[in-house]
Each structure stands twice: as structure tokens, then as C-alpha cells.
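Bit of a strange request maybe. I'm writing a small parser for C-alpha cell strings and I need a real example to test against, not something I typed by hand. Could someone generate the C-alpha cells for this chain?
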Amino acid sequence: MKGKSGDRVVLRHTGRHATIVRLDGDQLAFVKLDGDREVFPVPIEDIIWDPQASAVAGQFKDRKEGEGVAGSFSGQGLGTLVAVALDPEGSSGRKYYFVLINDQPKPLPYEGSWEKSPARVLPFKGELPGFTWRILFEGPLDDLNDHPHLHLKRWHKEGLRQKALPVWDHRFKAKVIVTRQEASHYLPFHAAVFPLPDEANDSRKIPVKIHHPGRDNAFTPVAIIPDPEERAGFATTLDLHIENLVKNPRKLEEAAIFRTQIDAFDRYIQKAIRLGIPRIFIIHGIGTGKLRQYIQDHCAQDPHVLRATNNYDPRFGYGATEIVFSGE
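Reply from user aminoacidic:
Good idea to test on real output. This should exercise your parser:
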């Protein structure tokens, strides 16, 4: 197992930086977050090791020349997205990384070009499996000052045939990419994420223009129309006690229990956001406090969350957190 006490790491789901205090076998590590005195356990699989102060840097550090970086996620079926991630401030030779995200179950054939200038055009082509992301290319951070242009073609696979999706032409602005760096459901590192139009889901998506005084729109986000029946049937309270999540909790080790709980929470809060639920109530218990801390860290990073409070509740004491969404 790689890693030792004192190593600098990044937590995969929150993007927060931490230091390894001690290792407990090959499944669990105790870490201390930057700026926090509390030490709490984290599953080894949720840690990005030796990140050089960035989850992005950790993903790319041991990569061989020409070797891609890719990963998967629990999908929501929202179509295609693109993202641009950056090396951390202070890194020598800072780079940007262009990411393609396929948030649908079917493979996504694609091809296109990244034009840094009329004389510097980078073509790319491939196929992305369902619910995965892939780094397509990278370059010096200074290239973003030239407002590079992306031309992207995509297709939906329908048996042996392919259905063309809308071509996406977009000129990126360095300021927008830098200011929109944030954690997302899709990637284990911060990035600026942009949704793409998808004809296959037009009945469920409405383009929403965001107007910024004094400058052009950086992109056209997509608002999801929630299904009325699904929204009405959504339970606004989630109990994360392990006996409510699996049939035989006694067979699970501590790390597996924690992994199951945070997976259930991640899926639940993403669904609540998608359905436009105004507030939810998470029952996490007291215990060691690691689950409560994970929820607080997640909410602090999520732009959809207005506040997350762990006040006393007559039913659960301090063993529950209320999350209120911004509604924007």
C-alpha cells in the first residue's frame, strides 16, 4: 500500500486538502483537514495520494507521455459535459486539462478540434463509455489567454446506427475558466464544468440564458424540469444508519460502512438538487462525527447549498443535519 503518515493528500469527494495522521490497515486512513484540528477516518479509496497540493496534480503525476487519464461516476443521465481543470497556483509550469464527460449509459462517439490559434489546431477523436470522464488533452496555462476555440461533434449510438447530436462550437475565456473552478459530482478534482445541448433530451431540458452585466455570456447552462410525480414522492429525510442501507451490516468493516453511507448521501443530495427540493434532513447519528463532518464538508463545497445546520433536534439530538438549498 502506498502512503505513510505525514503525506499530503486530497479527499476525492470534497476536494479538500489534508495530511495523513496514521494508517489503519489497507482500507482506512486517519486524516486531519487543513485548518482543522479534528482527526477523522477516510476510506483509502477516497484519497488521492501525493497530490502536490492539488487533486489534479495527483491524478497526472505518474502518467506516461501520451497516456490518458479517465474515471467513472454514478450517473444522473444529464447528457454530455465538458470541463477544464487547472494545476494549483504556485505550481511550476502550470497546465490546463480538457475533460470530456459522458453522463449517460450509452457510449459516446466524438471527434473535434481544439484551436489555440489558426496555426495551432489539435484534432481529437474517440469513444467514451457511459458514465465516465476522460482527459482528452492538456496544454500550458498561458494558452487560455488566447481564447481557444472548441469544435465538438457527438453521436448517440442506436444499435448499429449513430444519431448526430448538435455540434458544439465554443470559445473559452480564461477568466471564466479560472473563476468557475469548483468541485462537481463527476470529477475527483476541481474544474469549470459546462453542459452541452442534447437533442435526445430536449423535452426535459430548457436553455436558460444567464446575463452578466458588462460581459458576454460564458455559456448557456441547462435547467432540468423535474418530473412532478417523482418530485412529489421524494422523501425529504434520509436516515444514514447502516441498518437502513444494507441487509447484513454486521458483515461490513468500518471502511465499507462509511463508504456505503457517503455513497447513499451523495446520490440522495444529487437527486434532491435535480428535483428542486428546497430542503432535506439527513440523520447521521453522533458516533465519531466523521459522517457529520463529511456532510458538512460536502455542503461547504456545493454551490447549490445555502446552509447546512447541525442544531439540536428533539427527535435526534445533534445526530441530524438540515440542508437548505439556494434555489438558484
